[in-house]
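Minutes, project check-in
Item: structure for the 813-residue chain
Input as provided by the requester:
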Amino acid sequence: MLADLRFALRQLRKSPGFAAVAILTLALGIGANTAIFSAVYALILKPLPFPAPDRLVEIYNTYVKGGVPRASSNVVAYLDYQKNTASYAHVALWSPFQGMYGEDATAERLAGVRTTAEIFDVLGLKPIIGQFFTAENHAPAADKVLVLTQSFWTAHYREDPGVLGKTVRLDGETFTIVGVAPRALEAFNAAQVRFVRPLSWDPATLNPGARHANNPRLFARLKPGVALGTALAEADTLERRHYDAGPPPLREFMDRAGHKIAVASVQLERVQPLRTSLLLLQGGVVLVLLIGCVNVANLLLARANARQSELAIRLALGAGRGAITRQLLLESLLLTTLGTACGLALATAITKAFNLYRAQLMPDALPFTLDGGVLGFTVAIAVGTALLISLAPIVYVLRANLLALIHRSSRGASGGAGVRALSSALIVGQVAVAVILLSGAGLLIHGFIKAVAVHPGFDPSGVIAGVISIPRPHRATDDASRTLRERVVQSAREIPGVSSVALALAMPFQGGMPLNAFTLADDVLPPGSPQPAANRVLVSPAYHETLRLSLVEGRFFEPRDLASTNAGFVVDENFAKKYFPGRSALGGRFSFGGRPEKDSDWPVVIGVVRHVPHRGVYDTSGVPYVYQMIGGRTGTMSVFLRTPRPAADTLAQLREKLRAIDPALALFDTGPLQAAIDSSHSERRAVMLLLVGFAGVALFLSALGLYGVLAYDVAQRTREIGVRGAIGATHAQIVGLIMRQGLWKTAFGLVLGLGGALLLSGYLKTLLYEVSPTDPRAYAAVSALLLVVAALACWLPARRAAKIDPMAALRTE
């Protein structure tokens, strides 16, 4: 085998062009597969780094009839499950937040988590230094302690053990650092988390109605031997007990909303949103690798055919077919090994690029790495690739009469028809696979174009937006919050060039609006109808003017509404059509929560505006939107300024105005409002661009393979083409002959590929926006593109064939 290996190296050195093309083709396929698999492994396959991770579950609410397939939990349910269940060893609440960490003038906005003390038992964690907080810290007066994450401790404090006992400022309050959590905590949807603080609550707020005030997430660890189905059955029993003990309005709400409790594996739930996209990309790069293998197999087949005399002589000298097969297999393995080495370098670069984008798309996921599991996958790919690319030449060698080839070669015969037939079959398969990839990319492009073209329902041009973090003193009371909002609006209006200023509690196209059930004054919904619910958009009076919402009827909020305790609602068109069909929604009455005691207390609809997809155009829930005046206290608020001036200048002046109000007011996530709309397409854009890139590579490799086969065929048929020219065939006829041969292969592969694409298109359904998986325009565009590229790939060797001098070809033979 060593002798065969040395011979294989000499063979590659003698054919550097062949070696370079084969190695680079394999490197591209293996490298892309390794990079994508690193993401798939990290997010889907790799177990969480906790003891018995299969026993980690999340308990959450579902309101199927209300259009909410997944909602969080609450403190009331947490206390109930903590005291009255036998299936769970520990239960804990988990609520991410953003806080201003450090002194007011230099504070950084960092991600943190409010959680109950049991979370460390749920995850099975021990502190690196210090201690974790306890249940005693859940009281509002005892919750001023922090546990740092290991990454933050390392980066910010350089692993100084003296950090214990230090006091720091968080959101304008003083906290004491009591411990450091191990890095494993960051794998629990918390890659961006820098610190953990106790979740506290006022016991006076624990009423049965708060059981459906979904905010924090509820996690638990199953006891050993308890099955998921058993835990779900116990949860159903608890919820049924709550339902039976509840007042009639609560039971009616639960029936209309279709409330159910769910208990699901944390490992499965955390990857569900990304599962389709990741598996789609993995399938795409597998197809690219398959096309690359076909290309290299065709090269090896042509190479084996060209070496037929050499192989026949070796056979005549006593080498068995097994030895020749081993030689060909070693050459394939050597090519694959070199391709894998280059592919790993490429995978490292792609993985680094992925991690830069991952921070935007999946901020809670840890960076992807080429760890042992990924490298094992790469080795398996390499071995499989070596076997695949060597299959065609080995079959050719085993079936050929090599001794007869010596005599045939001496008579000047060209390559065998069997080799050309096998090469043609490989090309047909290659084209078919490329069509599948191109069709998927075409469908995604069409859907993305339609999504981007959706009118946002307002005019984002000339609007600058940002988010303001509000220190605790300004949200201690409703009056303090109201005063701060008025001062912010007034100060921002003083900035030169600003024509209007508005506030809201969420950014358009970024979600963050609460979904709340409501009660209609004239409830004429038939029995069994879903519970009415809407997304609430809390805004200031100038929101309509600043964003230029399209008013359909009625009016928007005005400054005089600030003094009203019941300013009413502005609803979107979807709300009006759904709950006030066939009539004007103006004057319609409804209330979030239960029915008001007095008939005069019903809020009324004062205006209807054009629909704005605040949760992004991909939200298919159909839940309408209701605009309401901001009231009460809040930790953050979005600010919008309409101005023709550059964003940088305006934002600098806005920061100065905020510092004049209070140095602790922080402004972040700033930029043009159009950027917030564009970012809502980030995930779909990333998947589309990657798949388009893979499809482009597949198209190039297919065209290259088609060109190579035809060029080789022309070279092998030199005498035949010379004879055709000698007996009168024109250049056009020779070009047509070669073109027809190539385009027939392409057409056959195109038909097979379109059939395969139609069969697999259903997997794209969740990623398409208002585009059918069988959209004929996408398939027509893909077919046209492939035929144009194939025609060019065929024309180049056809032109070369037409230039063959008949007399020179006959003399050579």
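Outcome recorded: The CA atoms of residues 738 and 799 lie 9 Å apart.
No further action items on this chain.
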